[in-house]
Amino acid sequence: MSSRDFTVKDVKSQIQKTFDELNKRNLAVLDERFSPNVIVHSAMGTDVRGLQAYKESVNQTFSTFPDIHCTLIDVLADEDKSATRYTWTGTHKGKLGGTSGNVAPTGKKVTMTVYSIARYEAGKVAEQWTMSNRLSFFQQLGVTPTLDMK
Amino acid sequence: MTDMTPAQLKKRVQGLFAAYNSGAIFKEIDKWYASDVVSHTYDGSSVRGLEQFKKNMEATMAAFANAHLTLDDIVVQGDREAHSYSYTATFSAPFLGIKPTGKKITVPGNVVFQTWRDGKIAEIWWMDNAMALFGQMGVTPPRPK
User: Fold this and answer.
1) Testing the interface with A: which of B40, B75, B88, B125 to mutate, by most A Cβ within 10 A?
2) Helices A134-141 and B130-137, axial angle in degrees (round to 10)
3) What is the ipTM of this complex?
4) pLDDT at position A146
5) A128 close to A41: Cβ distance less than 8 angstroms
6) Distances in Å between the alpha carbon of B6 and those of A34, B9, B11?
7) Cα(A25)–Cα(A19) distance, rounded to whole angstroms?
């Protein structure tokens, strides 16, 4: 699929489908949207490389927040990029690791807002930049954030 | 509908960055933002109207002297666009009740969605990289109210 086949409507329906399926815990839907070599950049300066690693990180989030639910708010798309705003809500039941430090389950419910920009190659996301209200995340959990930036 | 092509809207956003970087934004803010501009933060709070928006912007720009903004990425659709940007600045005046540290800060990963109307910004949704900002300011973030 060339970039000319890529319409705003396609992108919106694809992103909505991804959210609907992830809310049903169907990780396989990510195969349709992301390139096998996708690079996902986070605001913490860390990168996840490759679809397999990205799936593992999403799966980890499902374990940490078992009732997580994502709601798509807004999508913009041009010929080879999209920008998305969404929220997710979930209860912190599992251990947080990685850039969040080691935080034992707090049982608290958090609501996050995420803005992301994706770049497409041949109809699939090749690179994605994600920004969330990470400071508010720690405040909602009631823990002191790790502020060291990589 | 928009009165600008995607290329023109991109150019307008680049112009906005140039206006912030030259300081011209202070004099020509009404050329860039609609009088009834609405600015939303990620936590759901909003500022309505150019007067209040201008006050907040001036306070922020005063706290972060010598601010230089870099447009990193942009997506345009009709009269709407989303862009990411980075900035460097010196934390030089009180901000959110925090005493200035005089530190130079570098904050990547800020994202903004904007709706344009008649060549001006009518509505804004912000996601600033507050984690990186407070980390670089060298202070503990304020507790939520």
Assistant:
1) B75
2) 80
3) 0.89
4) 63
5) yes
6) 26, 5, 9
7) 10
